[in-house]
Amino acid sequence: MSDTRRRVKVYTLNEDRQWDDRGTGHVSSTFVERLKGISLLVRAESDGSLLLESKISPNTAYQKQQDTLIVWSEAENYDLALSFQEKAGCDEIWEKICQVQGKDPALEITQDPIDESEEERFEEMPETSHLVELPPCELARLEEIADLVTSVLSSPIRREKLALALMSEGYMKKLLQLFQVCEDLDNREGLHHLYEIVRGVLFLNKAALFEVMFSDDCIMDVVGCLEYDPALVQPKRHREFLTKTAKFKEVIPITDSELRQKIHQTYRVQYIQDIILPTPSVFEENFLSTLTSFIFFNKVEIVSMLQEDEKFLTEVFAQLTDEATEDGKRRELVNFFKEFCAFSQTLQPQNRDAFFKTLANLGILSALEIVMGMDDLQVRAAATDIFSYLVEFSPSMVREFVMQEPQQTDDDVLLINVVIKQMICDSDPELGGAVQLMGLLRTLIDPENMLAPTNKTEKTEFLSFFYKYCMQVLTAPLLANTVDDKHSKVLLMLVCFPDNFQTAQLLALILELLTFCVEHHTYHIKTYIMNKDLLRRVLVLMNSKHTFLALCALRFMRRIIGQKDEYYNRYIIKGNLFEPVISTLLDNGTRYNLLNSAIIELFEFIKVEDIKSLIAHIIDNYYKALESIEYVQTFKGLKGRYEQEKDRQTQRLNRSVRYRRDPRTLDEDEEMWFNEDEDDDEGEAIEKSRPEEEFPESYGKYIEAKKVKESEDKENFPKRTPTGSFKFTFSHSTGAANGTNGANGKPAASTTSPNTISSFYLSICNYPDDEDEEEEDEEQSPRKRPRLGS
Fold first, then answer.
1. Where in this chain does the record put each Serine/threonine-protein phosphatase 4 regulatory subunit 3-like central domain (predicted)?
2. How many CB atoms lie within 10 A of CB 678?
3. Whose CB has fewer CB within 10 Å in the chain, the N or C terminal residue?
4. Going by C-beta distance under 8 Å and a sequence separation of 6 or more, which residues neighbour residue 704?
5. pLDDT in tens, 76-129
6. CA 660 to CA 715: how far, in whole Å?
7. Closest C-alpha among 217, 212, 193, 210 to residue 272
8. DSSP β-bridge partners for residue 542
C-alpha cells in the first residue's frame, strides 16, 4: 500500500486567479542531477507519470497554509500548490524545504519576494527595525493599532512580521473581545477602528490568521467588525442575515460534525468575500488570493467527504424519487444537488468523472424528469442547472439514457420532450430559460460530439430516435393549427398566432435549432421537411412585423438552398416557395435594410453557385416582377445565366438531332456520346440534375401550361387582421408540393378559420398525434425525366 502521508494534489493558479487541479500523486524530495539540487517530485498515482519537478531554490518564498498546504511561485505569474492528504506528510516536506533554505520550520513562510530597492533599504536599517511591536490591546490604543496595520500593507517584509506578531499570545482573539466591549458601549469610533484593523488583517493574506479568524468562536465577531464601515451612515446587518435569514437546511441529516462545521465555515467565508468586503482595487487583487484558496480547498474537502459517505447519497436519491415525498422536501433536495454539482467543479477531472457517474447510476436523470415537470419555477430552474452540468459533462451519457426510455414510458414524458416543453412554455418574457434549454438541446443533437469510438452507431441511432419521438414536439408551435383531412388526403393549413414579441422570440429559437439541423443532419431533416411541408409553413413568418423573425425564416430557407441538393430544389420549385420571399422583397420597396440585403444575398448565392434548376424557375416565373430592380445586378445576372444555359442546351439539342440516325446503325462512339452525361447509379439517394435536362425543346409549352394551371389555383397571401395577428391561407399544401391532387385532378383549395391566442398556446403545450409518421417517412424517389433525343 502506498504511503498516504505523501499523497498530494498538485494545483496551479490560472489567469483568473482560480486554482486548476493538475492531478493526484505522491511527493518526494530528492537530488536531481539535471537541476543540480534537491527537488520536489510528484509522480501520478494512476500511471507513475511525472506531475511536478521543482527545484527547491534558496531564494523562493514557500508558504505553509492550513497545516496541509504548501504554496509558492516559480515565476512571475506561475503559482503552485501541494495539498497533502495528511498533516504529517506536509510537515515532512516543509521541514525539508526549510532545511535546504536554512530556515526555521516553525515559520509559516520562508521569505518574502521583495524588490532590490526594498531589500537594500532594509539592509541599511538597524536589526531592531525589522520587528513590529504591537501596542497593548486596549480601547485607547485602537487608533494606533489601526494605523499600524494600514501602514504595513505596502511592505511584504513588514506584513510577514505583523502577521507573526498578531498570531503570538492570542492577540487576534483579544482584539475581537474588544469589539464586543465597543459594541456594548456603542463606541462608534472604536468600532470604526476595528473595521480598519480587521480589513487590514484580511489583506495580510495569511492562512494561519484565517484559521483563527474563521473558527467557530471568532467568525461572527469578524463579520460584526466588518459591519461598521466608516463610510456608511448606519452599519450593515450581516450577522442578522447569517443567523436568522440564512437557514442551513439538512435535506438528509449530516452526522459528521466536522463536515457540518466545514459547510458552515465555507458559506460564511464566501459571504465575507463576495458580500462584505469591497471589490479590491488593481493594487489589492493579490491581497486576497489566500482567501480564495481557503474557500477553494474547503469546497474540495466538502465534496470529497460527501462522496465518501456511502449512505448519504443513497438516502438523498431515495427521497428524491419517492412519489410520497412532499413538494417542499423535493425542492430542498433539488437545490442541494444544484449546490453539490457546483461544488464538484472544483474536483480534478478523474474525480469529477467518478462523481457524475455515481449520480447517473443513482438515477439523477430519472429524478430530473419528475422535478422539471413541477409547477415551482425555482425547482425547474435548479433542475435545468443540474441538467446543464450533466450535458456538459457527458452528452453521450444523457443520450444513452433517453434512448432507453421509449421501452419504459410514454412519449409525452420522455426527458428530451420534457425539456422541449419547458422551452416552449417558458413564462419568462425574455425567455431566459428557453435560451438555456435550446443550447442544451443543440449540444445533444450535435453530431460533432457523437463520434466516440466506443459506440460508432450512436449518431444514427440517436438521430432516428430524435426525429421519431421528439421532432414533432419541437415543431409544434409551427404546426399548431394544422388539420389533416384523412378522407381527401389534403392537408389544410391555417396559422393564426399573436404576433407579439414573446411568441416571435420563441419561434426564432425553434428556427435557429431547425437551421442547425439542416446544416448537420442532412437526410433526417430533409425527410421531415418534405413530409411536413415545413419550409412553406416557416415562410409564413416572412410577413411578421418582427423583422428578426422574418430574417430567421429567410435564414432557414438560405441554409436549405445552401445544401445544393436537387431534392430540396425540386421541392421549392413544385411548391412555388420563392413567392413569399419575392413578395417580401417587393413590399420592402426601396428601403435599404438588413432584410433587403439578406434576400438579395440569397439570390446572389443562387447566381454565383449556378444552381440551374432554381435559376430557370426564378426567371420563368418572377423575372417580370424583378427586372425593375437595378440597384444591384443580381437579377440581370440571373437572366444572363439563364440565357447562356438555354443557348447551350439548344445547341446541344440541334447537334444531336442533326447527326441522329437509325438506332440500329449507331456505332459504338455515337452510343458513348449520347450516354456520356447520363447518371444511372441506382444507389444514389438524390438524383443529380443533368445540364441537358434543364431546357428541353418543349420547355416553352410546359411553362405555358404551368402558368394556366397556377392561375386556376392562385395563392392568397397573408393579410394583416385588425387585431394585429396574421391569417395565412395556402392553396399549395403538402399534397401539392409532393404531387398529391384532389378528386378532380387539381389541388384542393384550403379553408381558413380564426383561432384565439389561448388556442395557440393550448396547441403549443398539447401536441397533435402523428399517426401517419411511419407512412410519411418513406421518401419517394422523384420520377426521372426522359433523356433528350430518345
1. 144-644
2. 11
3. N
4. none
5. 667 888 988 888 888 889 888 888 888 878 777 776 544 444 444 434 333 334
6. 44
7. 210
8. none
Determine the Cα angle at 168 with ends 166 and 170, to 5°.
Answer: 80
Average pLDDT score, the chain: 77
Residue 663 neighbours by CB distance under 10 Å: 10
Eight-state DSSP code of residue 676: T
HSE (side-chain half, CA atoms, 13 Å) at 786: 6
The pLDDT value recorded for residue 107 is 78
Measured CA to CA, the distance from residue 766 to residue 393 in angstroms comes to 32
668 by Cβ neighbours in 10 Å (0-12 / 13-18 / 19+) ranks as exposed
What's the mean pLDDT in 339-346?
A: 84
- Cα(616)–Cα(642) distance, rounded to whole angstroms? 6
The three cell numbers of residue 129 are 527595525
At 662, is the secondary structure helix, strand, or coil?
coil
In contact, 691 and 648? CB cutoff 8 Å: yes
C-alpha cell at 584: 417580401
pLDDT of residue 701: 44
Task: Please say whether the dihedral angle defined by the alpha carbons of residues 137, 139, 144 and 145, taken in this order, is positive or negative.
Answer: positive
Crossing angle for the helix pair 415-424 and 395-404, to the nearest 10 degrees: 110
CATH 2.30.29.30-classified regions of the chain: 4-101
CA distance 272 to 283: 20
Instruction: Label residue 198 by pLDDT band (50, 70, 90).
Output: very high
- Measured N-to-C along each axis, helices 523-532 and 501-521 cross at an angle, to the nearest 10 degrees, of 130
Phi, psi of 659 (to 5 degrees): -105, 10
3-state SS assignment for residue 241: helix
Which residue is listed with cell 426527458? 415
Comparing C-alpha atoms, which of 580, 573, 533 is closest to residue 702? 573
- What's the burial of 247, exposed, middle or buried (CB within 10 Å: 0-12/13-18/19+)? exposed
Alpha helices (H) in 627-693, listed in sequence order = 634-658, 668-675
Name 15's Cβ contacts closer than 8 Å, sequence gap at least 6. Answer: 77
- Environment class of 281 (CB within 10 Å of its CB; exposed 0-12, middle 13-18, buried 19+): exposed
What is the topology classification, in CATH, of domain 4-101?
PH-domain like (2.30.29)
The secondary structure element, H or E, covering residue 396 is: helix 395-404
Mind listing the pLDDT tens digit for each residue in 39-87?
899 988 888 888 888 888 877 888 888 778 888 887 666 788 898 888 8
Cα separation, 370 vs 382, in Å, equals 13
Q: Is the pLDDT of residue 312 over 50?
A: yes
How far apart CA 567 and CA 422 sit, in angstroms, is 34
Give pLDDT, residue 350.
75
CB 337, CB 388: distance < 8 Å: no
Q: By mean pLDDT, which of 249-253, 522-526, 766-770 is the weakest?
A: 766-770
Mean pLDDT of 583-598: 91
Angle between the N-to-C axes of helices 364-371 and 310-321, in degrees from 0 to 180, rounded to the nearest 10: 40
Cα separation, 338 vs 357, whole angstroms: 16
Strand arrangement, sheet containing 19-32: 50-55, 37-44, 19-32, 7-13, 78-84, 69-75, 62-65
CA distance 291 to 717: 66
